[in-house]
């Protein structure tokens, strides 16, 4: 019986025993230096020649605006489509005119069409073989048509047509094992689709244009069993052999247990996270419109996708899982840390990265994108697991496909919006790391404007990203990539952040001009551009209110509100409370108290009693104060005081409303205390003007007694005079709603001691 070395030399892989296979796996893991040795595979000359035709630089050409890499490849694509058609039609004459148009020629002779069909049949076979090799090696289950981008990646297609079938299959195996040809072929597929658009039936093209592997896979899921990825099969087998108490469960239960072990062991896992992560999610197309994308597109294996997205099957797997899976409630499960460590010791070492990536895909895809999907009640239950899976990958984003890296980068940019400071910083750092090497314009712009957001909110610094944005535009132009609606809208979001920077510095005129200069790309506004238009109108309305132009401010806010109502397929609920507060504040300062109150009460009705945003309650309290309904104001302020989530601006506004109410009720001690709280709260905001601070000090001085508090009164009046001296024209005068009227009320009257 030959030894292991003899079997390897003779390529008798089918004769390798399980123990010998274990030796090979262990050597692969424990001796990575072996993988770096030069490989001297004795390929015959024909196979070597085919392998040499692969040129990944063609993909770069494709990504630079979708240009055709060479005429011969595109011609083959048309012949390939011709062969597909002839298989369905007995007579070649039926498609003659279509192919004359596609080849830009007239009166093609029949023998030429038959020759083209012969070449097309060869490419059908090549694509079939490539599909078989790619699916087998990658654990995929994609239709051959998904791999037709291969034709754009080979320099000399005629060399493949002359080769024998054995040489072609050997070359394909070599390329799939040693290069990124599978991923590149999937990325290049749209070029072939465009080339054969005129010759394929419209129904076929329209079906394939939606994307992508998922349609074929979904159909297959209902007609034949999904073939699990080798790491899934090997992991199940390892668990059954090493731990009978765990491995005795059904395959579904073992798979779910393994996957859960790669999530955070310190936190329970919501079942919804698993379902959402494996189900269809909304993403933006290059046209700036919503589209459905499947988890398989992101890299989740079909077997996991089918299991996790099927709620009844997933629940059965959880219900029948061994006792190591702790059920916290009907919707939450947990595995303790010692069990996690035990599992990871049992799993094949070369499968750990696979499971880390699969867990990351599930967790990041569960996070909803703003405007595309409804918000989730408690994002923290998802974010802890996303943070854990990102930490497990440890910045090794080269493990991920280019498509997944782009999607993950954009998802992290989306997730920066969630509240926790530490999370914002972590998500941003991960997005920067993941985006390294991602050429997508929208992703690069997203990283840039996220940096501006992070610096402004967390570091209280203003970062000018105009230089970075200019470099991104220049790189796109150099590569010949036209600006699509998605990237243009991303630049719009960056403009929003730059305007917010200007507003932070009280450069209201600069912010206004910046916003007015941004317009939609084409004649028809895309959905993504509509979102930018809403944000722009909101900020313009806020700027005009700060300047005291209340009527113009109301017009802008109402324009934004109308736009949100027109785009019913988008979800603006995360912006609506902010928008309604802005509009109500402008109405209040314009003296339209009843309209402001009705607007706020209608918006509050959309929320459950325990989830009403404090900003809405405070805006309502201010409107009630303007109407002299002080007891109702106190009740509303009490509600906000008990809330767990109160931002700095809400704390400031709460103190001001409480101080004004106490003052009007002649509770001067309470008023003084609240004004002191307001003065402390305003220190969290680096305003260059200090107009609001001046009103607070003026109000506080009214609560002081001339004799007992004479020193403090004198100090306050001196500070007031200094703030009046440094006040700059054109800056923010009406930052907090209601302060305009309160300032008039507080101004010294004739014969006043002030």
From TrEMBL:
Chain positions of ARM repeats: 299-331
PROSITE patterns: ARM_REPEAT (PS50176)
Gene3D superfamilies per the UniProt record, alphabetical: Tetratricopeptide repeat domain (1.25.40.10)
Superkingdom, taxonomy of origin: Eukaryota
Name of the protein in question: Tetratricopeptide-like helical
Taxonomic source organism: Metarhizium rileyi (strain RCEF 4871)
